[in-house]
Amino acid sequence: MIRPLLGWSLPRVFAHRCGGALAPENTLAGLRFAAQTGCRAVEFDVMLSADGSPWLIHDETLERTTDGCGRVCEMRDVDLARLDAGARQSGAFAGTPLPTLKAAAALCHELGLMANVEIKPANGFEAITGEVVAQQVLELWRDRPLPLVSSFSETSLLAARRMAPGLPLGALWERPPADWRQRVDALGAFSLHCAARALSDGLLDEARAAGIPVLCYTVNDPLDAETLFLRGVTAVFSDRIDLLS
């Protein structure tokens, strides 16, 4: 399968979950913080509501990052829009709303941020989430360089590929399987994403020979990041963009 390429150069550092650890994750406040630190690329997670709309949130449930409770996939848009996604970070961010993918895309365009959109499906919603996110990405980034779209779910990535054949995809694993290259090729993925601690020199050598960029999460120490770059890693996702940017 042909690997669609990015229309922009990968930076060394992506802000993890919008703004890293110093702003509420997966929020517009996080995007603004990333831009203020000079970071030019962000990663964020997208999950569907009960109405089938894509919202920025990492967990399948609301309790950890918002003042709500319950499963995201069972919540209507009107209820998600009322949530506070900032107060759990600190009182300074109280009242920060949970954003839609549409709102995040608009702010990325305004701030000049490139994006890695991670499809984060609720259990049982893998294919539909991939389809909806791919369709929305095509619409929201129309006439602009497309973001990189990644996921731990190969079902989601395959659905996204069917919906948007030209979409650049990132195959994401904590620890890449032995047959990672075959799976990347089957997806037509542009890049391989994995945990930094799971990265072997053999995998890096194979990826380099195939022209496949390797991106690692979550890297917060500047020395660790520099070691990864020297080994051949293309980019890292960081919660401490203030230290790495």
Could you describe the 3D structure shown?
The structure is a single chain. It contains 9 helices and 9 strands. The chain is of the alpha/beta class. A 9-stranded mixed β-sheet has the order 1-9-8-7-6-5-4-2-3. The protein is globular and about 50 Å long.
SSE diagram, text form:
Layout: E1 13-15, H1 28-36, E2 41-48, E3 54-56, H2 77-80, H3 101-111, E4 114-119, H4 126-140, E5 148-151, H5 154-163, E6 169-172, H6 180-187, E7 191-195, H7 201-210, E8 214-217, H8 222-231, E9 235-238, H9 241-244
Parallel strand pairs: 1-9, 2-4, 4-5, 5-6, 6-7, 7-8, 8-9
Antiparallel strand pairs: 2-3
Helix pairs in contact: 1-3, 4-5
Radius of gyration: 17 Å
CATH superfamily: Phosphatidylinositol (PI) phosphodiesterase
Quickly count the domains: 1
Backbone structural class: alpha/beta
Strand order of the largest sheet: 1-9-8-7-6-5-4-2-3
CATH topology group: TIM Barrel
Please mark out the parts with pLDDT under 50 across 5 or more consecutive residues, or reply none.
none
Helical fraction equals 25-40%
- According to DSSP, the number of beta strands is 9
Q: Overall mean pLDDT score? A: 97
The total count of helices amounts to 9
